[in-house]
Design brief:
By secondary structure, this protein is α/β, with parallel strands linked by helices. The chain contains 11 helices and 12 strands.
């Protein structure tokens, strides 16, 4: 860690109290231990139903296949649609609990545990890197299903530490896009950053009668998927940051921003003309897309 960064870190409210001088020295050693490595890719994962955690289908196969293309990370930071807060928080506990934040599903799903360790030092590193807003160290949340239901397919042994960063619901997409940029150096230290949500996500219009129909979407959903995919592949992010000004199809696709904003974090982490790959690019039940993105 650069001297200036360390001095700034030592001055952050609460950190010296939390860690003490020995703890600050340990934090510096941790940062230095994250030696620079080939740049890690960034992922946006369309997580879909929590049942994807225990079902075998084309989408979980897609998660596993993309996992095989990625070097084993030192740790994972996940921005999940299901941790939506006022302000920005990052989990900082040693062992995050597996959160079953849903209802009406089989007991087998509630029995799933994903016992990945946390990483308090990485949480504090994230806190130090983000200068645009205060970041609270959280000891209450854990791993919600937006995180564990997909990460378990990439790393089934739960042998990679995982922390989550929350989404501030009071801010617009451009804010989140720029916040993500502040984490870019972690990609060069073996940290895999994952956004987890769904790009087209209108639960009120789900066609339950056609849940098993392959690549089935309403006309407006297909239009939205194709429009957004075009912007993604062209690297034309401005319309994506201002989606509220786009067509009615996009308004139906993104009735609320919670599942969309994890994509924006992913895009904010793209550097230069890094390659973008779409996978699991299919519609589901009329009004959902499982489209996922690898950058780098």
């Amino acid at each position: 860690m650069k001297r200036q960064t360390f001095i700034k870190l030592a001055g952050l409210t609460g950190i010296s109290t939390l860690f003490g001088m020995k703890g600050l020295s340990a934090l510096q050693k941790y940062s230095e231990s994250l030696s620079y490595s080939p740049r890690m890719p960034v992922l946006f994962l369309g997580h879909g139903s929590p049942m994807n955690a225990i079902e075998e289908n084309q989408f979980v196969k897609g998660f596993r296949e993309i996992g095989k293309t990625i070097p084993k990370p030192n740790a994972i930071i996940c921005i999940s649609a299901h941790w939506y807060t006022r302000g920005t928080k990052v989990t900082a506990m040693e062992m995050p609990k597996t959160i079953h934040d849903f209802g009406g599903f089989p007991k087998a799903l509630f029995d799933v545990q994903y016992p990945a360790e946390g990483n308090p030092e990485l949480a504090t590193e994230v806190q130090s890197l983000i200068t645009s807003t205060p970041v609270d160290l959280d000891h209450d949340w854990g791993l919600d299903h937006g995180a564990w239901s997909v990460i378990k397919h990439l790393y089934p042994d739960a042998d990679i530490p995982v922390i989550q960063m929350s989404i501030d619901y009071t801010k617009d997409p451009a804010y989140h896009f720029n916040l993500a940029k502040q984490l870019n150096e972690l990609r060069d230290k073996g940290i895999l950053i994952i956004g987890s949500g769904n790009i087209v996500h209108n639960l009120r219009m789900v066609d339950f009668a056609n849940m098993d129909k392959d690549d089935y979407g309403y006309d407006w959903a297909l239009e939205a998927r194709n429009t957004i995919n075009g912007y993604l592949l062209d690297g034309n992010y401005n319309p994506l940051l201002n989606y509220q000004k786009e067509s009615r199809a996009l308004q139906l696709a993104i009735p609320t921003p919670d599942h969309y904003l994890p994509l924006i974090y992913t895009l904010g982490l793209r550097q230069g003309d890094e390659e973008q790959l779409l996978f699991n690019d299919k519609m589901l039940a009329g009004s959902l897309s499982m489209t996922s993105v690898r950058i780098g």
